[in-house]
Amino acid sequence: MRVLVTGAAGFMGSHVAEGLLAAGHDVVGVDDLSGGFRRNLLPEVEFYEVDLRDAEGAARVVRENPPEVLCHLAANAREGASQFQPRDVCGRNLMAYVNVLVPAVKHEVKKVVLYSSMAAYGDQKAPFDESMPRRPVDVYGVNKGAMEEITEILAEVHEFSYTVIRPHNVFGERQSLRDQFRNVVGIFMNRIMRGEPLYIYGDGEQKRAFSYIGDSLPAFLRAAELRPEVDGEHINVGGKKPITVNEMAKLVAAEFGAEPEVVYLPDRPREVKDAYCTHAKSERLLGYEEQFGLEEGLRRMAEWARTLGPQPWSEDRLELPSSKAPRIWMENDTHGKDCKGEADRP
Ligand SMILES: NC(=O)c1ccc[n+]([C@@H]2O[C@H](COP(=O)([O-])OP(=O)(O)OC[C@H]3O[C@@H](n4cnc5c(N)ncnc54)[C@H](O)[C@@H]3O)[C@@H](O)[C@H]2O)c1
Questions:
Q1: What single-letter DSSP state applies at residue 275?
Q2: Quick check: is 221 in a domain?
């Protein structure tokens, strides 16, 4: 079948596209390369460089390739920075989604797989279970919650199937190492390669269950199948071993045989203390299991990161600079430093 993957040049989208191709599907990919990389795209993917905030551009992609399944991953997924980049986050999440969903429904898409986020749970007590209500506390989470709700409403009225995936701190090969606003594992790896300190927000005792892409991908791919059991379901896909950010800093440093300086900064506004999820539903409906686990995943990602070498930080700026934003987001000193590796530009 034909599957349209948005965010196909991104980290997870490129793995999803690759997995779908391997399963024999035709894959059409769309991405504006704002956070993804051309080198992540396989030649077999029919690729459109389109910004989904442009409704006509999104409609053209769908018109030329009406999909049976839409896997929507395009996003600005900088949860912590979303309070300081609200326009970009709303445009690249909610609006981009509606712009591609409307033509897909018009062209009778059978199924939508929406990549939402654990941010939809907000500041509730972990572990987050799918039975909990949506209660987002940040701009990114509000977007994801609205995207989920709009999917539920349109699916009922216009009669298509959907599955909402709520992934959790996924890491692995092809993740951007250049984004100082998100992906703590990639940030730590790049800072170590660049010889910079590791910055930790708060006391570093906040818990996350990091998920290696190799463990999450089979579940993501099963979610795209046309199976009644997963219709209308919201499913967490997250790692099984919660660890603190302090512990993650030590694990990453050990992978690189490094002893970086660790600098503690104030908490980021509205950051949730502990965020990890239950697994019963993903195990039951998507056969989630961990073949690699945290340490092996980190080893593989570190090996890949070393081949890429130190990366320049992305030059994106905050829309609402504020003394409440981490000072490293406000400073220019981390931008454009000389790197040994070739600049990994999109
Ligand atoms: N990685 C995680 O830990 C995680 C956790 C929870 C949810 N998610 C969700 O999973 C999805 C994929 O995340 P990822 O980590 O692979 O992020 P990513 O940044 O690597 O991929 C997102 C892609 O979307 C593209 N994009 C952004 N705005 C666009 C636009 N207007 N038009 C077209 N393309 C656009 C970017 O260029 C990028 O390639 C996102 O929806 C994210 O919210 C990820």
A1: B
A2: yes
